[in-house]
Amino acid sequence: MDISGTTRLIGIIGYPITHSFSTIIHNHAFRRTGLDLCYVPFEVRREDTGQAVKGLAALGVLGVNVTVPHKESVIPFIDSLDESARTAGAVNTIIFRDGTTRGMNTDVDGFINAWDEDVREPHEGAHVAIIGTGGSARAVYHALCRRKVKRITLLSRKRERAEALHSHFSSVHRSVEREISIISEDRSVVGDFSDCAAIVNCTPLGMVKYQHQVPLRLPAGLSRSCVLFDLVYNPLETQFMKDGKALGLRVFNGLGMLLHQGAMSFREWTSREFPMNDVRQHLQGYLSEYFQEKTDKERKEMK
Predict the structure, then answer these.
(1) H and E: helices and strands count for the chain
(2) Angle of helix 276-302 versus helix 255-270 axis, rounded to 10
(3) What number of other Cβ atoms are within 10 A of residue 179's Cβ?
(4) Catalytic, out of 71, 150, 242, 300
(5) pLDDT single digits (tens) 202-239
(6) Which one of 176, 209, 224, 272 is most buried, by most CB atoms within 10 A?
(7) Cα 5–9–11 angle (5° rounding)?
(8) Coil, strand, or helix at residue 102?
(9) Contact 124/100 with Cβ under 8 angstroms?
């Protein structure tokens, strides 16, 4: 990619940020569509969120994605929110235009589109469990309610966080039944999950930095039809997914959601159509080499 005096920046803010594959996705999309844009990562600590948003706007950056841990804390520094961001109470995409900032949440439809493409199971009338209470959990919660699930169980180590999340959506999605199960110190949980259609991990546990940790020890009595959906995509198969496979469950990672939410952000920033098939093929090739190199390195270190 050639950088010139006319090149504009788009990026992603988070902490940590090195795990993200968004740079691979968007820079390839820019090349394929002939856009003079460059996508870069910005590592931003939580306490610097406000200054970062103001600085990016002042520098003429066109927009950014927002990832852990800023999806909720970034909201006070944004001028306006779209419906999904406002309802979810979380932002994953910011657009800088004409001196104003607009926040969106493309995670909501990104999750729905990825589910429809990968899992192909209906949500309506189902019981779904969500692990976590952060910004990603808010997006998934809103998506599930839009898909008319019957019951949502929040799995969290902090009851007050789970209660606050249920309360946030109670006035918007009144018909959904709400439950809370507390995750203990050993990451086990007590309760009857025999009718649970899916468990969605919305925490960072399992990604590269925490890859040997699991967000939850799978409860006993899960139906073989239960689906595990892990929003983590680096590594491609987390320990949570491996545990599910050992029980004969269908498991999915967050790569599809990454692509679909990224496609929506791309369209908002550029007013151009996202080259999905081309980007997907490029990403698959990149990941094949990336994880092979990582495996080879680990094998050498073990010798």
Answers:
(1) 9, 12
(2) 130
(3) 14
(4) 71
(5) 999 999 877 888 999 999 999 999 999 999 999 999 99
(6) 176
(7) 160
(8) strand
(9) no
Q: How far apart are CA 54 and CA 6, in angstroms?
A: 22
Residue 65 tokens read as 């994605």
Taking the C-alpha atoms of residue 155 and residue 216, their distance in angstroms, rounded to an integer, is 9
> What is the number of alpha carbons within 13 Å of residue 78 lying toward its C-beta?
27
Mean pLDDT of 277-294: 89
Q: What is the mean pLDDT of residues 83-105?
A: 97
Strand partners, 151: 127, 177
Question: Is residue 71 annotated as a catalytic residue, yes or no?
Answer: yes
Residue whose tokens read 């852990």: 68
The radius of gyration computed from the CA coordinates of the chain, to the nearest angstrom, equals 19
Rounded CA-CA distance 172/88 in Å is 10
Domains in the chain with CATH codes: 8-106+257-275 (3.40.50.10860), 108-254 (3.40.50.720)
Pairing of strands 196-201, 127-131: parallel
